[in-house]
Amino acid sequence: MKQVQNIIFDLGGIFLNIDYLKTEQAFIDLGVANFRELYSQHFASVLFEDLETGKISPTVFYGKFRQLSSTNLSDEDIQHAWNAMLLDFPIERLQWLNTIKSKYKIYLFSNTNQIHYDCFIEIVNQLMGGKQNFNDYFIKAYYSHLLGLRKPYKESFTAILEEQNLVAAETLFIDDTLKNIEGAQLAGLQTIHLVPPAQVTALGL
User: What pLDDT score does 1 carry?
Assistant: First the structure.
């Protein structure tokens, strides 16, 4: 095993606290009883994959979600329920990033979408008083809706390695979802499956 030179971090469950059940419950409260069949930590239906790979806009997503769920929910109702899973950024994790980036080349790779992106960037802006952009902690932050590829597919990891000219065997990927870890391993990366309540700041990197 080669020494780690580069680290690619997941976002949710690593830096941003996430509770998927809050979004599921928010949609149940809105009358969408089968939301788990559409999206969960471990599964995304075609509609949500399209949103998370930037194939459809939030506006199109809202309309298609109404059709799929047979509801008349407003865009705002859907947005609020969809963002309910996004909790907080413990500031010590962001402070830790300032330390770790002096030892490794660090990157971010998140399965996300424009709706969530706008929400969590605002969370960080409020936390930091607008003094530091979250993306600036990394050499580059990759978001699936902008990359056009999402985890756990091997091709998504390969695209990042090729763009950044990184050696897979020298690159560590850290994620809280096993399917994503398995995808990274197929691309030849070293991996850490960070299972809560384990904290990234306690890994001894």
Answer: 54
